[in-house]
Amino acid sequence: MGFTKLLFFLTYMKDIFGIIHQVKELNLIWILKGQKVPIENANKLDRTVFLLMFGPCLIAVVSYNVLPMVRNTVVCLVFGEPFPFLLVFDVNFFYDTRKVPAYTLTYLIQCYNCYLTAFLNLLIDTTFFGICMNICAHFEILKIVIHDLEVKEFVEYHQKVLNLAKHINRLFNPIIFGEYLVLSVLFCVLALEAGLSENFFDFIPILFHGIASLLDLMIYSYGGQKIMDCASEICKDCYNVDSNYLIIMLRTKRELKIESMMYHAALPMCSLIMGRTMSLITLMKSFL
């Protein structure tokens, strides 16, 4: 999944920065008009989620990278056995990794790949969440200014926000599909690894990897659910204004979903995946 996200970022980097620029422009317009509270709240939540994700992600990565070297050192110095040449990932290479400098270079490359994958995931996931929260902030502003704007101005603003939501849906479509598909399998694998781990030190990276992955799933589910709810809530406010807003009421009755193929980003989907994970774990245990 990390390689897929790297490819996604390099391919759609211009589009991602384009959306961020559009959001910033829209934010600036309404901050100058005095509607800065919803935007500030959205950005505050985004920063909080980033910090919540950063902690488990960092601990998981450091654990995966440091524990093999700790084991190497303990086996060699404490037990007096030959250096075991353990790597971050136990992979068979076409060259002998039990020799220096091949072992050193392989270990460093694996560490680098681990850090790159983890923090690129963090960057893309929190970017998606931040854009979602800013879009929701503008839906909140729409509810506040519905009595103050002319119908034409309100419709144009509403359409801009809808277009942003549709754009992020199209752009992140493959990532959302891959995220839900991979995480549904990853939770099973991590649970089995935790059950088969022989000591506490094996359990540490698995635990924090699981926490980071669960937060990852929640980011997409909550972001998609929040957009869907905020887009639908405008309809309730349109009942309190004149009949010129009928077309907006009709539009807001259609759910605005962040979706991809058989998945759509929402909290019920998060619950469904966790439920299926438990069933898959039980099934996989029966084969062991």
How would you describe the overall organization of this protein?
It is a single chain. This protein is mostly helical and 288 residues long. 79% of the residues lie in helices and 1% in strands. The protein has one domain. Helix 2 runs antiparallel to helix 6. The chain is elongated and about 80 Å long. The mean pLDDT is 79. It is a multi-pass membrane protein.
Notable traits:
8 helices, two-stranded antiparallel ribbon, 2 strands, mainly alpha, single chain, elongated, 288 residues
* Outline: elongated
Strand content: under 5%
**Distance, first to last CA:** 26 Å
**How is the largest sheet built, in terms of strand order?**
1-2
How many separate helices?
8
The assigned structural class equals: mainly alpha
Sheet having the most strands: 2 strands, antiparallel
Count of β-strands: 2
GO molecular function, one term: olfactory receptor activity
Protein name: Odorant receptor
Pfam families: 7tm_6
Transmembrane segments: 48-67, 74-95, 115-137, 171-192, 204-223, 261-284
List the SSEs and their pairings:
Layout lengths: L1 H31 L4 H42 L23 H44 L5 H21 L1 H24 L3 H39 L7 H7 L6 E2 L2 E2 L2 H20 L2
Antiparallel strand pairs: 1-2
Helix pairs in contact: 1-3, 1-4, 2-3, 2-6, 3-4, 3-6, 5-6, 5-8, 6-7, 6-8
Question: Quick recap of the structure?
Answer:
The chain has 288 residues and is mainly alpha-helical.
